[in-house]
Amino acid sequence: MTFVPTEMMLSDGRTAPPGHLQEADLLGLMDRHGIGTDATMAQHIKKQTERRYALKEGTTFRPTALGEALVMAYVHMGMDNMWKPMLRSAMEKQVCGWVPHAVRHVGRRVVSCRLSR
Q1: Which CATH superfamily is domain 23-115 in?
Q2: Closest by CA position to 39, among listed 53, 23, 27
Q3: What is the band of 117 on the pLDDT scale with cuts at 50, 70, 90?
Q4: Positive or negative, the Cα torsion across 103, 106, 110, 113?
Q5: What is the mean pLDDT of residues 10-23?
Q6: Any idea what DSSP says for residue 57?
Q7: Are 56 and 49 a contacting pair, CB within 8 Å?
Q8: Cβ(41)–Cβ(48) under 8 Å?
């Protein structure tokens, strides 16, 4: 089956970028991608604001010029994945497996991480 358009319409308007992330949305995305734990997510966010990659205004995060420049530099160097959540997620999974498993078997997981280098 082939799609054959029967009509085309043009409308005046402008596109707009998506709004900045709300803190709850950011925490949800971190959880969905497996980044951090309930105990460490706030530390990850704090580190980004301390390094001035983003500013927290109320419950909203806004990228700074430094944060945007870092992303653009990664893209320019062909390292687009350096700023995406999949990299951090993969790193956390590789280090010691899923956090609940690591919490239950802390001693054994630390030893296996050291041996897997």
Answers
A1: Topoisomerase I, domain 2 (1.10.460.10)
A2: 27
A3: very low
A4: negative
A5: 90
A6: E
A7: yes
A8: no
